[in-house]
Design goal:
The complex is a heterodimer. Chain A contains four helices and six strands; from the N terminus they run E-E-E-H-E-H-E-H-H-E. By secondary structure, chain A is of the alpha/beta class. In chain A, strands 1-2-3-4-5-6 form a six-stranded mixed beta sheet. Chain B has three domains: about 60 residues; about 190 residues, Nucleotide cyclase, GGDEF domain (Alpha-Beta Plaits), CATH 3.30.70.1230; about 45 residues, no CATH class. In chain B, about 55% of the residues lie in helices and about 20% in strands. In chain B, the strands form two sheets. In chain B, strands 1, 2, 3, 4, 5, 6, 7 and 8 form an eight-stranded mixed beta sheet that branches. Chain B starts with 8 loop residues before the first helix and ends in a 5-residue tail after the last helix. The chains are: A alpha/beta, B alpha+beta. Chains A and B meet through helix 1 and helix 2 of A and helix 2 of B.
């Protein structure tokens, strides 16, 4: 399962329960992010026991609408109660340091690794 | 996906029900206590939503600020790069690139009626062997700087500098008038020639005694203009037989002069005085090319003459004349010749009758 645009890709590996992001995500508003949000929501809902992983290392750019979508999903995961969330980022990508760090404020149990 | 932080329809209905219930004076006892507890629970959830929203707000703002700051830094870097790039390009090409009107793909080109200018410094190669490299660099840069300044003023496009040689063309614009381009090109050449004495003085301050003279060749006609090169490195330049003719005219030109072709002369004949220099054959060009040496702008020749010879009703004042076979420009020669001819004519006409 994947969502592919002109300069981005979000793909889900069902075996490792990992969503991998790459490229540049600069879609306009919630409507344009809906297909990606549905994909991630499905991953979250289907893996409540084992949890899920977002691998954002190859995502060079994410606009405000995109980070808003991810934060909402993190809040949802926290409220689901028993989901184990893992997020992998990269130090090489400027936006990830601060913005991924904030995810742990929404969900203190989130496992963040910025490599 | 429904947002996790919005009041669901069920919550909304429950809230309305509780508010109505608690406002009903008949509700009392256990029912009242359960209603209050349910409302408190709902209020707690709403409070959590508000906390999440507040956190979301500040986090998204932080993310946006990070992006804006990075964007601003990148813009600054791009501005610096563009500023550096500006010095490597002609103002016209720079404007077209930064304005987005240039297709940088190799192979994009078109035919245009241009006036093409070539110049080089007489004896520059020998100079490189006799002057210190630092001084040579200062001399060459001061010369090219002045030539570029004059070129900009007349609207030419500097195609390239090749050592001391300068290649310029006029007509890099869809709307350009070929005749005006030819005139601007020749006027530019004249101004370049007349700027040399001042530059020569400057060169002396660098320790050179070299006589600064240049050769100029100008030709007008259709050329191919565009990007030529490989897919990774292109030059915005001009090619064609008419470019070769201009280069050949420059080689053929007498030191300190401007040699133009018949096609250029046809467009500037009302502007300048010329002297026919015969035909030359250019390799790759089928017909011989007519050549003309530019003497000067017509009004300028007159003005220079008037500076040497001041005529009045009863006679004339002849100012001092400095002539050097090497240094005196064709324009000055013409002015001197004209002044002396006029003076002789006045002398002849004023011989006392014996």
């Amino acid at each position: 399962m994947e969502v592919i645009g002109g300069d981005y890709r979000v793909g889900v590996d069902a075996e490792t329960q990992t969503a991998s992001f790459s490229g540049t995500l600069r879609l306009n508003g919630a409507d344009e992010y809906a297909p990606i949000q549905e994909l991630l929501d499905e991953l979250l809902s289907n893996n409540q026991d084992g949890g899920c992983t977002w691998d954002l290392r190859e995502l060079q750019f994410l606009n405000s609408s995109g980070i808003n979508m991810l934060y909402q999903l993190v809040i949802k995961a926290r409220r689901m109660g028993n989901v184990k969330m893992r997020v992998i980022g990269s130090k090489e990508v400027a936006w990830q340091g601060k913005s991924l760090g904030n995810m742990t404020r929404f969900m203190p149990g989130l496992e963040l690794s910025v490599e | 996906m429904e947002s996790p932080i919005q009041l669901s329809e069920a919550d909304r209905a429950r809230l309305e029900q509780l508010v109505a219930m608690l406002g009903d004076p008949s509700v009392q006892g256990e029912q009242l206590r359960d209603g209050s507890l349910a409302l408190a629970e709902l209020a707690e959830r709403l409070g959590q939503d508000i906390d999440d929203l507040a956190l979301m707000y500040t986090s998204v703002i932080e993310h946006s600020t990070g992006l804006e700051n990075e964007l601003s830094e990148r813009n600054d870097q791009i501005s610096l790069l563009i500023e550096k790039m500006r010095r490597y390009l002609s103002p016209q090409l720079y404007g077209r690139i930064t304005g987005g009107t240039v297709d940088a793909a190799a192979g994009s080109h078109q035919r245009r009626n241009l006036s093409v200018f070539f110049s080089d410094i007489v004896g520059f190669t020998e100079l490189t062997d006799t002057v210190e490299p630092e001084s040579l660099s200062q001399m060459l840069n001061s010369y090219l700087d002045e030539m570029a300044r004059i070129c900009d003023r007349w609207g030419g496009t500097i195609d390239k500098f090749i050592g001391d040689a300068v290649m310029i063309f006029f007509g890099d614009d869809d709307q350009a008038d070929p005749i005006q381009c030819a005139k601007d090109c020749v006027c530019m050449a004249l101004e370049m020639q007349s700027s040399l004495p001042v530059l020569e003085e400057k060169w002396r301050s660098y320790g050179s005694s070299h006589l600064l003279r240049i050769r100029v060749g100008i030709n007008s006609g259709y050329c191919t203009i565009g990007n030529f090169g490989s897919s990774s490195r292109v030059d915005y330049t001009i090619i064609g037989g008419n470019v070769n003719v201009a280069a050949r005219l420059e080689h053929q030109c007498r030191p300190g002069s401007i040699l133009i072709s018949g096609s250029t002369y046809a467009m500037v004949r009302d502007l300048v005085e010329v002297q026919s220099m015969g035909m030359i054959q250019v390799k790759g060009v089928a017909h011989p090319v007519e050549t003309y040496e530019v003497i000067g702008r017509r009004p300028e020749v007159t003005a220079k003459t008037q500076r040497i010879l001041v005529e009045h009703e009863t006679g004339f004042d002849l100012k001092s004349i400095r002539f050097d076979t090497q240094a005196t420009s064709p324009l000055e020669r013409e002015a001197i010749r004209d002044s002396l001819n006029r003076a002789l004519a006045r002398l002849g006409s004023s011989e006392p009758e014996s």
